[in-house]
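Any chance you could type out some protein's one-letter sequence along with its backbone structure tokens so I can compare the two?
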Amino acid sequence: MPQGTGPAERDLLALEPIDRLRGLRPHSLTKRALALGLLGTALLSWAIPYSDLFLQGTWISSCHLPIGAFCLFFLSVLVLHIGLRKVAPHWAFTPAELLFAYAIMLVATGLPSFGLTAYLFPTLAGVTYYASPENKWAETFFAQIPPWFAPLDRSVTTPFFEGLRRGEHLPWGAWAVPVAAWTALALLVLGTMLCLCALIRKQWLENERLSFPLVQLPLAMVRESPGGAVGPFFRSPLMWLGFGVPLLIHTINGLHHYYPAWPQLKLVHPLNPYFRVRPWNQIGLFIIWLHFSVVGFTFLLPTQLSFSLWFFFLLSKAQSVIAGALGYQLSNMPGYPVQTYAAMQMLGAFVLICGYMAWVARPHLADIWRRVVRDDRTVDESREPMGFPTAVYGLALTTAGAVIWLNVAGMSAALALLSYALFFLIAMALTRFVAECGLLFIQAPFRPTDLFLMWVGAPAIGAANLTALAFFQRIFVFDLRAFPMPSILNAFKIGEQGPLRGRQLVWSCALGMLVAIGVSYVSFLWITYTAGGVKLQKWFLLHSPQQPFTFLTSYLRSPPELRVSTLAFFAVGLAVTWALFSLRSRFVWWPLHPVGYAMGPSWPMIQLWFSTLLGWLLKTSLMRYGGFRGFVRIRPFFLGLVLGEFAAAGLWIVIGWLTGPPGYRFFLT
């Protein structure tokens, strides 16, 4: 069976800093590295809710290379490493220390935004605030909500959305029980993620040698030169040329945002207005988006991967047009801009990819079995962030704890276990896509409820199960663009390349997540109660809190018809993915990768397809006419594109902080 990249391209990547970071001195955990990581996490955890809700500019924690954490790392490299090496060498931070601090921030800073907090509080408060006689939420499902689930008193939820009046105080006490309950579940979910990542680390990092593209830039930035304070990355003219391109363009567009008479260079161009008549109007959302950072990361990918990502996206659009020509009226998945037939094919691909990962990992899983069941001490665990027995027992305990929690919340034990397993099947597949493809932004257009309703039906599931799932899925499953599992694996890769001690790293990251949760809770509640949620970001505080309960009411009052026919599309996804794996194993030249098929029609690819196409085209052309030497020489330019776009994002976030909302927003939506 094929590995993550072809042999030739793995050899090419092996020559890059990702695999041999010369000049990086070994270093274990230091107190100041831990303090830097936790301090940066705390600052970002306070700032992210303010930026997301009030400034409403570019998201600073909406992807798996979070802008906030990366910009702090960039500043740390410039000031604490390069700057101090010139003026106070004894105080300068080593590259390993900076990487350690960055790994902590990387793992933790998705939680204050899409990863947990930004969905938790609006969902719990919105169920009461947005209930009305017209939508009949109270009569339909309020009886299924446990009293400890959410603050159901309007005296608590109304000021959350409308702001505190003069003389009123923030009702911390009213939030104590629901926050404690949901935080307990969040810790169980995060514990499951940590244990799973610890179990698959060796397979992905050492056995399959996945490329982890999102790690390459931070490692290149701290690469040292003998006798010089400034490393080769920052001395490269091509890097600074690439850095300047997005910085200049976003500066022009940022000035246009504040001064409309200033010229603008459009980076977004909707294509749907060109497809107005049937069957072309069935094409779905079709937009050109230019993200310089995505072009840069695509240049680092094997060409088979990058080609497959944009090819299968366009193929999904062709399928929609053909279906429209045959007379089908295509529907979307609830809450996602992805058509149902395409989402079911994605699900089939996810299932088979997870099965493939388990099949390839058989020798590794056998080692884990021998160590845990037979207590075979010859199994090497010296480089593991967590001992195999600890990880296996931790996985079992956190899973059991989460299932018990959901059962107490009203779900049947069997459905709770099935839902939790489906959630982590999706999470494992998406984590693989980040590790192998370097996708900045990932999402799956289906939830357990969608599958249950299509294949079993709402009456068979029951009101209590559907109500508990509505809360659980909105908070943890609906939008996985910033969930920490891919970042944990990226942190392990950083630790391996650092090199850093894995067990110190995993517990430091766990501590960082606790800091992020606590600080972001306080920040989020303070901002919403002070300013009033309805005056803040519309998605988090207006649309998202209503969406799951609008769907829930519809399911309970007018149960949707069974759509068992969608199993056919699921089977198509299984079959096509199996065929792609088989062809890749038989023909070295086969250009199509299963990951491209699995992500093709998704919301992330709607935003990323054009930039991926451009990056593939540039790399293919360069490799054809410039060869390997051309690739090595031009590589700093494309890393500079990434650094320049992220630096521009950080710059305009600061400007937005100074000028007030709405800020200039240009990266991912």
The beta strands are 268-270, 287-289. Residues 1-26 have pLDDT under 50 and may be disordered. Residues 365 and 434 are 22 Å apart (CA to CA).
